[in-house]
Specification:
Blueprint lengths: L1 E6 L5 H9 L3 E6 L4 E3 L4 E3 L2 H8 L4 E2 L7 H8 L5 E5 L7 H5 L5 E5 L11 H7 L4 E8 L9 E8 L5 H20 L35 H10 L6 E5 L2 E11 L15 E2 L4 E9 L5 E2 H7 L10
Parallel strand pairs: 1-2, 1-6, 2-5, 6-7
Antiparallel strand pairs: 3-4, 7-8, 8-9, 10-11, 11-13, 12-13, 13-14
Helix pairs in contact: 1-6, 5-7
Length: 302
């Protein structure tokens, strides 16, 4: 099939690789424009743009797809389908309608649960036992289109980063399977809107650990925000990120350090950080942090 691929972050790269490996004609790759990064603020290519350029595929990085010129250029590609995976731009109606079989999205949840921008983080925060990937026919609504295929995955105690990598691989395999069914054998299953839940973008304020909550929920914050934006607490004017933590049955006043190993009391129970990170430093084990940055028992965390 003649395909345009539309994606930007690491999550999208396995699907692009799968399309190339399966022999599809990838006419163009669309991704968000390079962004300033690092201390020098030099422009940095997205993972998808780097992969596409390495493969010798034409890359387009429009700021928007709302203009008539961009829409005409997309239609001129003469596509059978567009495959979308974490692209990051809204697709206007003329873009959705241009390919012969429409636009197909790799969505990191079992729809209609967790429609929206942050399905992986929201599933972890909610304590879901499982999630998965759905291939969906895109339409004007937010992740409301008919489902073409789905595959589940267990969440266990995975971080958002680990779960994202797993779902990216599943999504790539599933997309190739779905494309192999076109044009005659594909089935479209409508979503049940009454079962929908929504996964809004993560706000920066959500990353601050809320020790008034039960320890189980605090530990979910740690996993949901690893690697980004990083769950954190404050002490002596510094933010300390918590990248991994265990749950303890110890108790105390919420937000108080209750032993010499940085166990922190929560609404019920406690968490014990095992991997932490100071600003501008590499991640380190908690014992290493405490050797150079004492946080004694009894300390109250902000």
């Amino acid at each position: 099939m003649r395909i345009a691929f539309m994606g930007t972050p690491d999550f999208a790269v396995p699907t692009l690789d799968a399309l190339i490996g399966a022999g599809h004609d990838v006419a163009a790759v669309y991704c968000q424009p390079p962004r300033p990064a690092g201390r020098g603020r030099a422009l940095s290519l997205s993972p998808v743009q780097r992969r596409a350029q390495d493969a010798g595929i034409a890359v387009r990085t429009p700021v928007s797809l709302k203009g008539a010129g961009e829409q005409a250029a997309f239609a001129a590609l003469g596509l059978d389908a567009a495959v979308v995976a974490a692209y990051g731009l809204i697709l206007p109606e003329p873009i959705l309608a241009a390919p012969r079989f429409g636009c197909l999205n790799v969505h990191a949840s079992l729809l209609p649960r967790w429609r929206g921008a942050a399905p992986i983080q929201r599933a972890i925060l909610a304590g879901d036992a499982r999630t998965g990937v759905t291939i969906m026919q895109m339409e004007r609504g937010l992740d409301t289109g008919p489902m073409l295929g789905a595959m589940p995955a267990q969440i266990d105690r995975k971080t958002a980063g680990a779960l994202s990598a797993e779902l990216a691989g599943i999504g790539a395999q599933l997309m190739i399977r779905v494309l192999g069914l076109y044009p005659h054998d594909i089935g479209r299953v409508p979503q049940r809107d009454e079962r929908a839940t929504h996964a809004p973008k993560i706000a920066k304020a959500e990353a601050k650990l809320d020790f008034a909550r039960p320890a189980m929920q605090v530990e979910r914050q740690v996993r949901a925000f690893n690697p980004a934006p990083g769950a954190w607490f404050g002490y002596e004017g510094e933010r300390i990120k918590v990248l991994a933590a265990e749950i303890s049955e110890l108790g105390g006043e919420p937000g108080t350090v209750i032993d010499h190993g940085l166990a922190i009391a929560c609404g019920t129970g406690a968490i014990v950080p095992s991997l932490v990170q100071r600003a501008g430093r590499a991640p380190m084990m908690t014992a290493e942090l405490l050797r150079g940055f004492a946080i004694p028992a009894g300390a109250k965390l902000a």
